Amino acid sequence: MAGTVRIRVLRADDAELLCAAYVRNRQHLAPWEPLRAEEFFTPEGQMMSVQSKLSLFIAGSDVPWVLTDSGDIVGMMTLSGIVRGPFLSAHLGYWVAKDYGGRGIGSAAAAFAVDAGRDDLGLHRLQAATLPHNAASQKILRRTGFTEIGTAPAYLNIAGAWQDHILFQRILY
Fold first, then answer.
1. Contact 76/28 with Cβ under 8 angstroms?
2. Model confidence pTM above 0.85
3. Helix/strand/coil (H, E, C) string of the chain?
4. Which of 63, 81, 109, 163 is the most exposed place for a label (fewest CB within 10 A)?
5. pLDDT tens for residues 11-34?
6. 141-153: string of b/e by CB count within 10 Å (b at 16+)?
7. What is d(CA 36, CA 84) in angstroms, rounded to the nearest whole number?
């Protein structure tokens, strides 16, 4: 994918690796994610999260990927809320470990998701949302062909507050 970083579908045995990644990046991710209970940062909490994500994957509504480097998880990306029928759309979400920022990994991962959404899932559109002050994520989305389509007031509860988000989309075909 980019350098030594690879991407693969989340596996049932990833809970401990994912736990370690979240613990290493807890402060880095805190401004961009919902408040997390302490249990989230335990292997047991991650096992429940992995099982939930894999259930959604089996149901066809989500595709969870992990970004790996030398066996460690250094990021995660998901196409979620996959809708079939006339909409053929999904939401793209991702994070990259603090120590891996600025290397083009986020852009490579987003480009991978675009290709998978179009070629493997037959989707017409991907949407993503960023906090207005998340310039790095906006740069990734623009670099991979997403266009800004507006602002959603009080869109998601992030870091303990309902926050506005800038919405982006990419038409795949």
1. no
2. yes
3. CECCEEEEECCHHHHHHHHHHHHHCHHHHHHHCCCCCHHHHCHHHHHHHHHHHHHHHHHCCCEEEEEEECCEEEEEEEEEEEECCCCCEEEEEEEECHHHCCCCHHHHHHHHHHHHHHHHCCCCEEEEEECCCCHHHHHHHHHCCCEEEEEEEEEEEECCEEEEEEEEEEECC
4. 81
5. 999 999 999 999 999 999 999 999
6. beebebeeeeeee
7. 31
- Residue 37 exposed, middle or buried by CB count within 10 Å (0-12, 13-18, 19+): exposed
